[in-house]
Request: fold
Amino acid sequence: MPPPDSRRALRLGAALALACAAAAPAADPPAAEWPRLVVRSLADTGEGTLRAMLDAAERREGPDLITFDPELIGEPRTIVLARALPPVTTDVTLDGSVPDRLWRAVGVTISGGDRWRVFEVAPGGRLTLRALTVAHGAAGSGGGALNRGELRAEGVTFRDNTAECDGGAIAHLDGRLAVVNATFARNRAGARGGAVAALADDAAFVHGTFAANGAARGGGLYAAGSLRLANSILADNAPGSDCVAEPGAAMPPARNLIGSSEGCGESFVAGDANLGTLGYFNGPTPVVPLNGDSPAINLGDPADALDLDGLPLYWDQRGNGDPRRVAGFPDLGAFEHQAFPKLVVDTAADTALRACTSAVRGDCPLRGALELALADPRHGTIRFDPEVFAAPATLPLAAPLPRLTRALTLDAGATAGVTLAPGGNFPALAADPGAEPVLLGVTLAAPPGAP
Reply:
């Protein structure tokens, strides 16, 4: 047995350990264990309403998750605010997802009734919005949402919001803003940012669609601070250019389709975005679809197709049922065209397109067809359109084609013959050992100057 002094020391040490453990702050519970608050009424005030759930979340410590009764929003429903909601000062997630409702229009719209701003995030507050629509908000700035804390949105549509000054849908004044898989449509601002005015640093938009918005400056998006814009579409916004970034706004290059840009970088692809009209095409929110001949199809960068937690996106904005990468590559924007590509080369031009939809000729160059084929093992053969190549044709290559990592067949047997001609000191087509292609009616020319 330890001597008395040792036993006393052990008891004292245990007491101190217990006291320190009691004084230490408890860690936040994981998201799955957050206290759940459920909206069960479409009214603005009273028991079970959104306002009551937000008030309860403000009174409680720790993060809160607010969901909606699936039977309440089993079809598109709207909550119209009778007055402005209080600013969010704690950590709140508002999730409008409806489980087990594949390929149906469902969900909830939070409307300001063209009188009130819908959401405001105060300094120190954190609001996460998922799978819902923010509409008909109205304010001096930030008709749909005003952010001074941290605002995160995924699978959200901001439509028909207005601001007298800046940010018809969102005015980002401070803190952090992150938006993924979201649609901005028919928002208006009197001065800057018909959809979004990012007036502070630390703003990011991934797989966003900005269409039919308008402002004096930046009909779709206006940025005065650092901004990350990736795999997004900004098109058909007027008045104001689709995207405006002030000279001091840092914006790293990425794949985007931008109709008209002032400081937002070059559009990755030129031409009409060929967007459809805002509507419900399955899921909890209305979206702007891609028409079958849109150049945005399959043009996204998989490395940027990440959700708010940095994980690969599995679904497009509509959620469960509409995969984000039907062909191995994501589309630009919030909507994913669900047609499987047909690998028929229909142009001699060496472009960045890789839609291969058969909806229009010219969207399936050989480069794009190879990228699609190598991304999906279901593809084993690339064919050439016999009408486009009815006469012998040469395909000039501006850069090396993707290196073959598995065997493919390039079949121009129904054409008059196709020659691949490198424009520099590189082979017409390179392959790993054992991945040599089968060429039918295809000739590989030597690089310029080769003996």
Q: What stands out?
A: Residues 32-339 form one domain. The longest strand covers residues 176-185.
